[in-house]
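Researcher: Here's a chain I'd like modeled. Treat it as a single chain, no partners, no ligands.
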Amino acid sequence: MAPEMSRGAKIAIRLLELSPLIVLTLALAVYLALPRTVGGMLLTSALYRSPVQDPAYQQQSQAQLALSGFRNLAEQGKQEYVGRDFGVENASLQDVVDAAWATMQPKELDRAVIGEVLPENHRAQARVRQWERENRAQLYLWVVPVSADTTIAYQYVGNAGLLTMQERLALSGPHKDQIRGLLSYATGEPPVPLATLNSGGGVGEASRTINVASWLAGGHVWESYLIYPSGPGSDTSGYYPELGSFTLDPTSRDGRAWLDRFTSKFNGDVFIVGPVDGAPALLRTPMPTEGSWLEGPRTLGSVVWPKRAEQRALSERTGFALSDGERRLTGGKWGILAVAGEDSPAAGTPAKASVVALAVMNESPAVTVLRQQWGSTPTRRMQAWLAPRYTFALGFLGMLFLASLVVSPTAFMFERRATAEVEMERERERIRREANERVFARLEALSREVESAGQSATGPAEDELARAATGIEDTLEDLRRLLGDAGGGAASR
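Model: Modeled as a single isolated chain. C-alpha cells:
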C-alpha cells in the first residue's frame, strides 16, 4: 500500500503551489518598505545605472544612494528620518585632518617629503587615533607638495585688449608665480590646491572678470586663470564660463582640443599652469612604522592619489568601495578621502603643500550611518538593513518568482498524482474487503459443498465434482493474486 503524505509534506506542497502569490506579496512588501522617493531612486539607478548623467553619482554604491535619498527626505521635511549630523562622513574626517594640519610645522612637512613620517608622540596623533577608535577605521596621511616652478601648460589669447602690455609681458614668463603675482588680487589670498577660489567678480578695469580654479586631470593638479570681458556691451554679458566639466590633461591632444573649443566660445584669455603637485609623500600610517612596512603605505598613496580625487570621491561624504589593489594594501573594503591645504599667514604667499587623508574601514560608511540614524525602532532598523540591499532583494525575488512559475504547476501535478494513487489504493482496499467478506466466503462454502458431494458420489459424477472443486480452488488462487493478501486469511480458514 502506497504511504499517505505526512502533514508536513502536504504543507510544503501547498506552499510550493502558492509560491508565485507568496513571492509577489514579499516583493510588494519590500517595494513598499522604503519611502517612494528613496525606492524610486534605487530602482532607477539599478535599471539605468544612474538617474542623472553625473559621474560622481554613477559611482555611488546603493548604500550611498539610499543615504542620499533619506537625506533628501529629511531636508524636505517630509519625514524625520535623520538629523543634521550624519555620523561617519567626510565632514567629520575633514575636521580631524584640518586640525592635524593646523598643528604641523613646515619642517615636519619637509621631512615627510624626504621620507620621514610623524612620530607616534606627535601632538596631531591623539585626535587622529580618537577618530579611528570612534569610527573603527584606519587613517593614512600623505603630503602632496606644490611645485614652485610650474610652467604654463596652456594659454589662449582671445582678446588682446583685456590685459595691458606690461601684464602680457609678465605672463610671457615660464613660471606660475608670475601669473599668481599678477592675478592674486582676484581672490585676495593665495590659491590652495583642489579649491575653487573665485567664481567671478570685477577685477581691475570694470570690463573684465577673472576666474581662478584648480582641478585634477591626467594624474595631476592644474590651476586655471580665465580673464574675459563682462561689461554691459560685451558678448559675454550675463555668461559666466567655467572649467568645471574639464577632466582632461591640458598637455594632451584631446585636452588642448577641448580647451580650444571652450575658449573659442567667448572673447577672452585662458592661462593654465601645472602640474602644481608633486609625488605624494607618506606622513602618517595607522600601524607601527618599523622596517620595510612603509613601502605598502607609500605605494598606496600613489594608487589613491589622485585617481580617487579625479573620480570625485573627495566630494562623496559616505566613501567608496576600494579596488582590489587598494584592498590588498590596506586590508579594508571601504574608504573616505579628505584634503587639507595650507592657509598661509602672509597674503600673497603661495601654498607649500596639501595633505591627503584616506580613512579605511571594513564596512560601508553609508551603512553605518543608516544603522546609527534609524536604529531606534524595529521599522527603522528594518529600513536601515534593507536600504543598502533594496535592489538586490527585489532582483532576487524576481528570479524567485520566475522559478515559482515552474515549481508551482509541478507541485500541483505531483499533489494530484499522489492523491490519485492514494485514492486508487483505498479503492483496491475496499474491493479486497468486499471480496473477502462476500466472494471468498461464498466460493469457500461452495468448495466445501462440492467436496462433500464428491465424497458421497460414485462413478463419473465423482470425477466431475472433483474437477469442479479443483476449478473453484484455482479461481480462489486467481482472486488472491488479483486482489492481494486481503483474502488470504479467509481462504486459509
